[in-house]
Amino acid sequence: MAIRRRLALTVGQRRELAAHRDHDPRPYVRERCAALLKVADGGSAHAVARHGLLRPRDPDTVYGWMDLYRADGIDGLVKHRPGGDRRGGPPGHEGPAREPEDLNP
Fold it and tell me: What is the CA radius of gyration of the chain?
């Protein structure tokens, strides 16, 4: 049987997450904070991901938000923008080397 991951929050952490959930101008931050508060209130990350948010999410997404929050607090949720790595390569890969363009024909 899988071990259920829990999120224990202090009163201060709960207040901070609730403030960002209710007032942050970035929708992705509000969604992440809402998800974490639901997990902290006893919901499973899987149930929150599938049925507890405005749109269903992959449960691994909510587990990732939990990891970001545990590692860096609210800054981890804010700094990690939605959408993943848009470069298409592995992290740190800048793509194929290109010759500089000649700006003076």
Answer: 18
Specify whether the CB–CB gap between 40 and 9 falls below 8 A.
yes
Range of the domain at 17: 11-79
Domain count, the chain: 1
pTM across the whole model: 0.77
* Sequence-distant (≥ 6) Cβ neighbours of residue 20 within 8 angstroms: 29, 30, 33, 74, 77
Does 105 fall in a domain?
no
Q: What is the pLDDT of residues 5-57, one digit of tens each?
A: 889 999 999 999 999 999 999 999 999 999 999 999 999 999 999 999 999 99
16 alpha-carbon distance from chain centroid: 16
Report the candidate in 13, 2, 11 with the shortest Cα–Cα distance to residue 70.
13
**Nearest residue to 31 via CA among 45, 39, 20:** 20
